[in-house]
Amino acid sequence: MRSRVWMAVGVASMVVLSSAGAAHGQASCADCCFYSCIAAHLQKTAGMRDMYAGLAGRKGLTEAAYASAVAEARQRLAVQEAKAVGGVRSCDWRFPDPKDNLAMKEWQRLGWGLETLDDGRIAWKFRVETDMTKCSLDERQLAKLREIAPCGGIADATGAHERGHLDQCTARGAGTTVSANRMAQDEVEGHNLAIAKLEELREAARQACRKKDGSCAEQGANAAADRLRDVLPIFKATLGKKR
Ligand SMILES: [Zn+2]
To answer: What is the pLDDT along the chain (243 residues), one digit of tens a residue?
Structure first.
């Protein structure tokens, strides 16, 4: 049998567009200004989980069908997340300066990329992967993710997801081949670990918003009304929800 490397890819697999770098230091997620980023990321993660749950139960699921369903959902949900976050500055990722050769070399050593679009914006491509044949995780990717995420907890949610894969892999033994259905089920479990973490973060941010009467000073100062327009509905909907 031809050897294959199945990569279980974490929730952090994404393309993020940016036109300018942001610098607000490594921050705790328990801040009202991160509420919308956490809520949007949670929504995307839950969407991916639901998609994988559908695949897990699909009869005759082929690897090709699995791959195309994942690619479609990833694209669709990334757009949804970007719209939900809008232009809230505190939700920006801290990408390296593309002119900084050293920083860009480090970025590429992680297996990550970038693409400059026609309009001058940059599409940053990065992901955290667990090698499900060797049962290994690239800790450098996770460490970098924590550096660039809007707040550290968002990266930690991905860490929980990927460590879940390590546990699955170790339990089965390195080199064990699994069906596409089983892979989808692995992803359901991995995403559930991330969702649990993101729900905790969202609650902490929600509490912080209550203390500030639901306002985020940074957003108010830096973001124009039109940039917030797409974010406020999700913000209000979740704040108003009885738990
Ligand atoms: Zn995964």
So the answer is: 333 333 333 434 455 555 444 444 467 899 888 999 999 999 999 999 999 999 999 999 999 999 999 989 988 998 888 888 877 888 888 888 888 999 999 999 999 988 887 877 777 888 888 888 899 999 999 999 999 999 999 999 999 999 999 999 999 999 898 999 999 999 999 999 999 999 999 999 999 888 865 567 554 444 444 444 433 433 333 333 333
Q: Has residue 1 been placed in a domain? A: no
Distance from Cα 192 to the centre of ligand 1, integer Å: 10
| CA 193 to ligand 1 centroid distance, Å | 10
Does residue 131 form part of some domain? yes
Q: Please report whether residue 45 resides in a domain.
A: yes
Q: Rounded to the nearest whole angstrom, what is the distance from the C-alpha of residue 215 to the centroid of ligand 1? A: 34
Residue 242 neighbours by CB distance under 10 Å: 3
Distance CA 154, CA 98 (A): 23
Supply the range of the domain harboring residue 101.
7-240
Q: Residue 5 Cα, ligand 1 centroid: separation in angstroms?
A: 14
What is the Cα–Cα distance from 208 to 48, expressed in whole angstroms? 28
pTM (whole model) above 0.90: no
Structural domain count of the chain: 1
Q: Has residue 222 been placed in a domain? A: yes
Centre of ligand 1 from the C-alpha of residue 70, in Å: 11
* Bridge partner list, 17: 123
Q: Which residues share a beta bridge with 136? A: 131
